[in-house]
């Protein structure tokens, strides 16, 4: 049952969608069903709300995932991820990670100073505060999702292209890499949809079979909605399927039968 855990984290790291300026806005909301075949392991949501943080207009994005039913009885997961993103510059000002994964807990808050290139990390569980430097154009794991939606031109991308991004997570800087696989018509709960396919690089070993064990399908339209995530694990496979949505900024294009 512990193999269901990575999908909640990876939904917020790797369900990356891409488009032009203003691909999303206040009120956008996604719900994903996480499942082994027909068996539902849990649900994850992503929602956007306009707010003000220290006098700046921001989007407050919250991602929440939890196990349900029998899966929760075997291995309880409640993951809460939040980011406060500048609504014009697409940079994060604050990131929150509060998780409970089978008794393994973290309660971390990160404040980003983009002028000084410093991240102040507050570990509330251990009552510790530390400061780290970060490179130019660094994102957190939530803001990356929305940054790429607004800034990557999918009309010029070619099969095999690899996108790189500076990311800061917990207390570390690292390069997030994503490979473009191609285009495909995908059958979804909402109908047949033109999609873009990406594979984020992950670490092979204990959880994943190899570094390209994740595949992500996003709608090839102005919204770039994450529709499906498939994870090939060391044992078995797991999927996260978009089951509900609302508040899209653009019309959702379905292929007529």
Automatic annotation (TrEMBL):
It holds the Pfam family DUF3108. It comes from the Bacteria. Residues 1-19 form the signal peptide. InterPro entries: DUF3108 (IPR021457). Keywords: Signal. The keyword Signal applies. This is ATP-dependent exonuclease. It comes from Aequorivita viscosa.
